[in-house]
Design brief:
alpha+beta; Cytochrome p450; 3-stranded antiparallel β-sheet; 10 strands; globular; binds protoporphyrin IX containing FE
Length: 405
């Protein structure tokens, strides 16, 4: 067994992509070498980068050996502010600080509940496409007009925020994830979002409905006393934050993939009933857009891929490389919506696996076929080389997707 590979070079993380359609070359090279590899992050610390599918499943699937708590010593934080900003959030916790909150949220995101939203998601999709088709100016940025707009309205409806208020949520959450925005603007966006949710939640006390905000305040704050009002508002904001940028990025990236690959797109449109669901799984695998997470810290010494990872050492999982692991996926570089291998980890793995995956799946299953059915001549309005991607953010995605038809 190797006890660490202490003297090897530890490249700076996040790793850079040479090709926008492939994982960073260094991540692929580490996977081919076979063992976890050190990387260097912003504070000079050297967590382990995992790139193989089996190693990541070992870590994310283990109970007790690895911690998701950003306040634990050695956790590979994304910035000095992370432990303060995210230290209290349930998904950055484990055990009793994680599961009870997850159980509170689960009922709104079951497969059945998300499936029940399908007709409404279809209706919204058609409405947005109608507005898009009516727009007088072209090119249109499809990220703004479609990819972001759909999940924003959907998540607002899941929460029970009225449709006409969704632009406030949309604007605020856009600012909250915008890199480089001045702090005052971010704080103002944060305040706007919290005020909106507080106001809505207060209203639900006298006019309950079946949305998540109503259940949080009426059942979990007032009836059971499990949360205080502020906790409930923060949970609502968290669900919005986690639930709309992610899906939006995937919708945009998926559109781009189908624009580049006519045969796959024709196949999807030949029978959306049959191909939409597998297309979502394949595009989740292909893009693996959560690119700088999941992160954990090791709680006790453990062997992963022949390397001993010591208690207190950080771990970063590279989903893009793992989801192209040739030991799990045949011809992993190819986009193939008929692929039957279903073990991608685009939504993570284990106890922290994505809360909103069912909802997100339904949105993507509706968004792609409807778009190409209604606008069959859709095409890029710029050269592919001019497209800009968020390369260093937590989630990979397109800055904008200018299209015409
Ligand atoms: C394509 C869209 C999405 C992708 C790729 C995605 C990806 C992920 C991944 C990889 C994780 C695991 C993180 C970890 O293990 O540290 C995760 C967790 C999570 N996701 Fe998503 N997600 C998406 C959509 C959503 C939506 C729509 C929601 C809305 C509710 C959501 C809410 C969450 C939450 C709350 C967690 C933490 C769960 C926990 O710790 O128990 N996500 N997601």
């Amino acid at each position: 067994m190797t006890i660490g590979t202490e003297n090897v070079e530890a490249p700076s993380f996040p790793l850079q992509r040479g090709c926008p359609f492939a994982p960073p070359e260094a991540a692929t090279a580490f996977r081919e070498e076979g063992a976890p590899h050190r990387v260097t992050i912003w504070d000079g610390s050297r967590p382990w980068l995992l790139t193989r599918h089996d190693h990541i499943q070992q870590v994310l699937g283990a109970r007790g050996t690895f911690s998701a708590d950003v306040t634990d010593p050695g956790f590979p934080n994304t910035s000095a502010a992370q432990p303060t900003v995210e230290g209290d959030i349930f998904f950055r916790k484990d055990g009793d600080e994680h599961l009870p909150i997850r159980r509170i949220l689960n009922p709104d995101f079951t497969a059945k509940r998300s499936e029940a939203l399908r007709p409404r998601i279809r209706e919204l999709t058609d409405q947005l496409l109608g507005e898009l088709l009516a727009s007088k100016t072209k090119p249109v940025d499809l990220v703004e007009a479609y990819a972001l707009a759909l999940p924003t309205v959907v998540i607002c409806e899941v929460l029970g925020v009225p449709y006409e208020e969704s632009p406030v949520i949309h604007e605020s959450s856009k600012k909250l994830v915008q890199l480089g925005l001045p702090t005052e603007e971010k704080l103002a966006a944060h305040t706007a979002m919290h005020e909106n949710l507080s106001r809505n939640m207060e209203r639900k006390r006298s006019a309950p409905d079946d949305g998540l905000l109503s259940r949080l305040v009426n059942t979990h704050v007032d009836e059971k006393g499990e949360l205080d009002f502020e906790d409930a508002v923060r949970l609502g904001a968290l669900v919005i934050g986690a639930g709309h940028e992610t899906t939006a990025n995937m919708i945009g990236l998926g559109v781009l993939a189908f624009l580049r690959d006519r045969p796959q797109r024709d196949l999807l449109l030949s029978d959306p009933e049959q191909y939409a669901a597998p297309a979502v799984e394949e595009l989740m695998r292909y893009w693996s857009m959560v690119q700088t997470e999941p992160r954990r810290v090791c709680v006790e010494d453990v062997e992963v891929g022949g390397v001993t990872i010591r208690a207190g050492e950080g771990i970063i999982c590279n989903l893009p490389a793992a989801n192209r692991d040739p030991e799990v996926f045949t011809a992993p570089e190819e986009l193939d919506i008929t692929r039957t291998e279903r073990r991608h980890m685009g939504f993570g793995f284990g106890i922290h696996q994505c809360l909103g995956q069912n909802l997100s799946r339904v949105e993507m299953q509706e968004a792609w076929p409807r778009l190409f059915q209604r606008i069959p001549t859709l095409q890029l309005a710029v050269d592919e080389s001019a497209l800009r991607f968020h390369t260093e953010a937590l989630t990979y995605g397109l800055e904008e997707l200018p299209v015409t038809w």
